[in-house]
Amino acid sequence: MEELILAIVKPLVDHPEDVKVEQKEDHDVLQLNLYVHPNDIGKVIGKKGRVAKAIRTVVYAAGANQHKKIHLEIVD
Questions:
Q1: Which pLDDT score, from 0 to 100, does residue 26 have?
Q2: Which of 1, 14, 58, 61 is at a distance of 20 to 30 A from 71, taking alpha carbons?
Q3: 24 CB contacts (<8 Å, ≥6 apart)?
Q4: DSSP of 46-71
Q5: Where is coiled-coil annotated (predicted)?
């Protein structure tokens, strides 16, 4: 899952070396925290959150077979 997020986000930002995904897993929840450079936060979120919503949609669809609830949070 981390590789998928990195593959989506790194081409969008100006500082791809600062993109990091942290994964925490409970028995029924998979928490993913996406860290980006503070100057790139707007590019990852997009106008009215459209880019962030699209990233979440792809991640949730890819994780549907894991039978866990997935939360993706963008942290600056």
A1: 86
A2: 14
A3: 30, 31, 32, 33
A4: -GGGHHHHHHHHHHHHHTGGGTSEEE
A5: none
Q: Which domains does the chain have, with CATH numbers?
A: 2-75 (3.30.300.20)
DSSP, collapsed to helix, strand or coil, labels residue 16 as helix
| Average pLDDT of span 58-72 | 87
d(CA 29, CA 13): 28
Lowest mean pLDDT among 9-13, 23-27, 63-67, 71-75: 63-67
- Which residues is 33 bridged to in the sheet? 22, 73
pTM more than 0.90:
no
Residues found in the chain = 76
Q: What average pLDDT score do residues 43-47 get?
A: 95
Q: Which amino acid type is present at position 56?
A: R
